[in-house]
Request: fold
Amino acid sequence: MSKLFMLLFASAVILLSSCSQYDQVEIALIPKGTDIMYWKGLHAGGEKAAQELGLKLIWQGPQKESDREQQINIVQNFISRGVDAIVLAPLDEVALMRPVATAKRRNIPVVIVDSGLKGSDYASYIATDNFATGELAAQKLTEMLGGRGDVILVRFLEGSNSTGLREEGFITWMRENASGITILSSDQHTGATMELALQTGQNLLNKFPTVDGIFCPNEATTFGLLRALQTVGKAGKVKLVGFDYTDPIEEGLRSRDIAGVVVQDPFRMGYDGVKTAFAVLQGKSVDPIIQTEVIFVTAENIDDPAVVAVTKPDVATWLGETP
Reply:
């Protein structure tokens, strides 16, 4: 009995020691912004991974996706604090190169999620194949228009790698596969907020009143253009294909004011980002590129269980919120 007791005691000491060690691990998760639901999904996924691993996750990001300077300062502050690893969604593919290089020199591994970063000073890149999602949006919009019509591409923010690739994927597919589609405008950037997207959308609709279809590459542009179409009484008449999923976008899909949206899995990105950063800290090899899946959501499939699993992740549980 004494030997059994000692064996159990030793096992408990080892377990507690392991938990204590992981409790001291700090991983910073830095989104592009904190003002839209998409980033809450990323946060929840990261928190799920952190709780499973027993480590500390620190969440901080700029309020607006246009605030490059604030995101740079946040990264630099975490480096000075001496966190063990950083999971970063860079809002500019160039501006964040220097702080990421600094983190590498300080032996703080960085995992990039959602949107790409130039250079090679990070351990892994986890994201959607953004160029392919733009191609998917172009294909779906072309099918909805029966292969013919006039369309507008609404761009988001200059320097944003993810949306830029979606925009280029859309244009490339249209030019190579849709001879009956004319792109009326593809050079207008909305800026970082829904209000700016609404204003840009109103200007475009005034200039091109007979447009048949519109593609928007993220949540802010999609909701802004939905509002613009509703304002002029053309919601549901002009085929609007957007990106990402929120309650207002869901309402637009159900009312058929939005024809369809490409939906990513930010929860999975956050989860895989933290897990990958922890693997790097343990000295394990990780894949340099990890691609996450997307789905195309319409009024017809919005309630399918497989779709709901992606569009409505269990954010409340992992962030300690009341559902």
Remarks:
- The chain is about 50% helix and 20% strand.
- The first helix runs from residue 2 to 23.
- The CA atoms of residues 148 and 180 lie 4 Å apart.
